[in-house]
UniProtKB/TrEMBL annotation:
Organism from which the protein derives: candidate division WOR-3 bacterium
Assembly with partners or alone: Component of the Sec protein translocase complex. Heterotrimer consisting of SecY, SecE and SecG subunits. The heterotrimers can form oligomers, although 1 heterotrimer is thought to be able to translocate proteins. Interacts with the ribosome. Interacts with SecDF, and other proteins may be involved. Interacts with SecA.
Domain of life: Bacteria
Gene Ontology cellular component terms for the protein in this record: plasma membrane
Name of the molecule in the record: Protein translocase subunit SecY
Gene3D superfamilies: SecY subunit domain (1.10.3370.10)
Localization per record: Cell membrane; Membrane
Amino acid sequence: MVRNVPNIFKIPDLRKRILFTLAMVVVYRLGTHIPTPGLNPQALKLFLESVRGTFFGLYDIFVGGALSRASVFALGIMPYISASIIFQLLGAVFPKIEKLQRDEEGRKKINQWTRYLTVLLAIIQATSISIYLENQPITSAGPIIILPGLLFRFITVLTLTAGTIFVMWISELITDRGLGNGASFIIFVGCLDETPRAIAQTYQLVRVGELSLFSLILLGAVIFFVYAGVVLITQAARKIPVQYPKRIIGRRMYGGQSTYIPLRINTAGVIPIIFAQSVVVFPSTLTTFFNVPALNVVKEIFSPGGWLYNLAYAALIIFFTYFYTSVVFNPRDLAENMQRYGGFIPGIRPGEKTAEYLDRSLTLITFPGALFLVFMALLPVYLMHTFKIPFYFGGTTLLIIVGVALDTIQQIESHLLMRHYEGLIKGIRIKGRRF
């Protein structure tokens, strides 16, 4: 890949896609610094620091700090991601939606429904946030809301919803005319926004003597090996061999080739951690909505780092890993498609037996993937307590960064290989053999 870097900008289509993606990223990052009318950014930042372990802290990481800056892009792409996941789950429950997901026209219709649901979710979230922030006490930097009331709520809902629609439009443009999946790329950019700040905070700790040089070297080694582990787990897959029979049509022989089905160890990606974290921080988030003394006990029990928090977190990650894997991978459909085209797994009967074999194989290899996700999710808690690091070194953000980076690199590689293939065809004249 490194030796092909100079060739990347020699391909006009690839060059346009890269420059377009970078331009959209610049537009998005500029938008995250445009403030929402009626909010006090300093007071909001202090409030979010006080609820860092709750859902708001998690949300702010995914939107690249846009929420703490009181930006018009405070909701980011998350309503669109939520709407997409909802329709994926509905497709696993309702056969009509699953049927629509299989053909081109049906997918266009579902994409349109996803946009409508995104707007609805953005309106609901913006309304909830505006009402919730109005009820918060005055911080040391002043009130969070400058002029509370119906006008503030209306402007906030209108501004944040419009911001979400604009971000959704940018993500679709990146998907169509840029590199990779636009929604994933925007989250990727948001996660990267925390990296310079984290490095600066770590340097400050070393400078004042709160973090020793040995601990810094050890921390760097841990992060390096974690990155390597994420790359390996993201790419790791069990290859199930598939054979297609030979067919003779006229004087030509067709088929007979061998291929394989890659069953990935981490089929579900980062979704299980996002689901599990949203559920496990829900009790502590409730305590910020309702000022009830009895709920403070719940907040203490489910505070990050507690044994019950870690246990519930790990169990939910394993559950959602298997659940979401069953949603995105259907062994029965795959077995039916193989049987329709004459494909079979050596030693396994086509049809129902093939579906059972694929399901059993995927169940076995999903477990180590789920354990790895648990490790990645609990690692930040260990690092914060061991090294006393003030920032949240998130396993979720690591998986997103590595996953999107690998997808982008693979897409660039495919463009380079395609160009190389076309160059060979143009530069070589095929001659027949003389006997």
